[in-house]
Amino acid sequence: MKTQLPKIIQGGMGVAVSNWSLAQAVSKLGQLGTVSGTALNLVVARRLQCGDPGGHIRRALNSFAFPKMAQRILDNYFIPGGKKLGTPFKAIAKPLLKGSRAFNELCIVSNFVEVFLAREGHKNAVAINYLEKIQLPHLPSLYGAILAGASFVVVGAGIATEMPAAIEALTNHRPATYPIRVNGSPTAIDFEFNPADYLEDGVDLPTLTKPSFLPIVSSDSLATMFMRRAKGQVDGFIVEAPTAGGHNAPPRGALQLDANGEPLYGPKDIANLEKIRALGLPFWLGGGYASPAKLAAALAAGATGIQAGTPFALCTDSGLLPELRQALMQQALNGTGRVVTDHLASPTGFPFKVAQLPGSLSEEAAWMQRIRVCDLGYLREAYLCADGTVGFRCPAETAEAYAAKGGDPAETTGRKCVCNGLMAAIGLTDPRPWGAEPPLLTLGDAYAEVTQFCTNNSPDFSAADVINTLLA
């Protein structure tokens, strides 16, 4: 690895919960700050329509390698002073198998912006985190992050064995492909991206540094499989237990539920650290390790360090709306904080940790009030149509719409709109006929332990407080 390895990796959480300011705060302190790469094209487009408060996006674009592309993004989305309150955001193109130039350019620019801002003001490493399940934006997004100098690419929620080859190609401005899984098709269909298509006259291509690749794995067998099948270099692993927030790996074997309807995990779902160590690569442990004692235990077990999410999500540097963060912290301090592992909530089919909070999608009333509409489409599934074309469907849309696209309507039971719910958590949703879009909040099982970073009299704490406590 090219950079000094951190003891603490800040998790890449939600949609812009792990935003550039959180990642910058962590990296400035010598640990690994991570920006969430999920739906960054949508986030940056909407920030621009809000007037780019602070001028951060425009400042980043002044350093972007392709000025004409940057100007096209500004012309299309920037609204001086911000859009009028109550008016909808301008729609952006949904991810498609053959990405449009406009879609790809927005992915390139937005990922550049977020990583550039996270790296501003220091010389330490910054990571970007992607969900493998959201495959269509991968290549243009990666290119933008590499252009900005991301040092690490972290990928979870899927098996990203093709990612190292894509990183290698894009670092050298070469064409890259990424296989897109299509339901009903015996083989994947390659998404193609060629950086040469985006060159501008008179602009010299910058020399880029290849970021290290860290897949998130749930087991030693998956880590071993990466070593055998990855098309390119794997630089380490984040070994995540099913106690971690966000998407979890399904339990191994047949799904069994406990009395509360949550998936049952057993000994087979615990990674064998001796086998992980034998692979000879650095690894970090995630899922309930955010305490000094557990960091020490991880180091004693041979880990390089830990990945921590929940305390960073609830610190003052995070992208969560302050009122949501404060309400979650109050629950923790009152001893009423609770997280449910919902095996139905996410359209991906992966179990998803849902923090319980009145007014959020954790409440059936809020979920039932929301009209089922899929207008963002990041978690849609590609499927093969009868005529041989590729269509897209999402089990979080209506049962009728899903069935009309060949899906089993039973698959829509209990599904929540993760895309809009996560956007609501950071305050970037459209006005709705039924009222405000309810947020979807995710934290790890160790939610209650965030009280170690604060007191009842002083419930706010910063990213620096988290790091200083963990390293004490």
Order of helices and strands: EHEHHHHEHEHEEEHEHEHEHHEEHEEHHH
Mean pLDDT metric: 94
The termini sit apart by 26 Å
Q: Which structural category fits the helices and strands?
A: alpha/beta
Strand order of the largest sheet: 1-10-9-8-7-4-3-2
- Overall, the morphology is globular
Task: Give a short summary of the structure.
This protein has helices spanning 20-28, 40-49, 56-61, 67-77, 101-119, 138-147, 163-171, 220-229, 273-278, 292-300, 310-313, 322-334, 364-369, 399-404, 418-425, 463-470; strands at 8-10, 33-36, 126-131, 152-156, 176-180, 189-193, 212-217, 237-240, 283-286, 305-308, 339-342, 352-355, 381-384, 390-393. The protein is α/β, with parallel strands linked by helices and 472 residues long.
Overall description:
- It contains 16 helices and 14 strands.
- The protein has 472 residues and is of the alpha/beta class.
Question: Which descriptors apply to this entry?
Answer:
eight-stranded parallel beta sheet; two-stranded antiparallel sheet; alpha/beta; 472 residues; 16 helices
Task: Describe the secondary-structure layout.
Elements (H helix, E strand, L loop, with lengths): L7 E3 L9 H9 L4 E4 L3 H10 L6 H6 L5 H11 L23 H19 L6 E6 L6 H10 L4 E5 L6 H9 L4 E5 L8 E5 L18 E6 L2 H10 L7 E4 L32 H6 L4 E4 L5 H9 L4 E4 L1 H4 L8 H13 L4 E4 L9 E4 L8 H6 L11 E4 L5 E4 L5 H6 L13 H8 L37 H8 L2
Parallel strand pairs: 1-10, 2-3, 3-4, 4-7, 7-8, 8-9, 9-10
Antiparallel strand pairs: 5-6, 11-12, 13-14
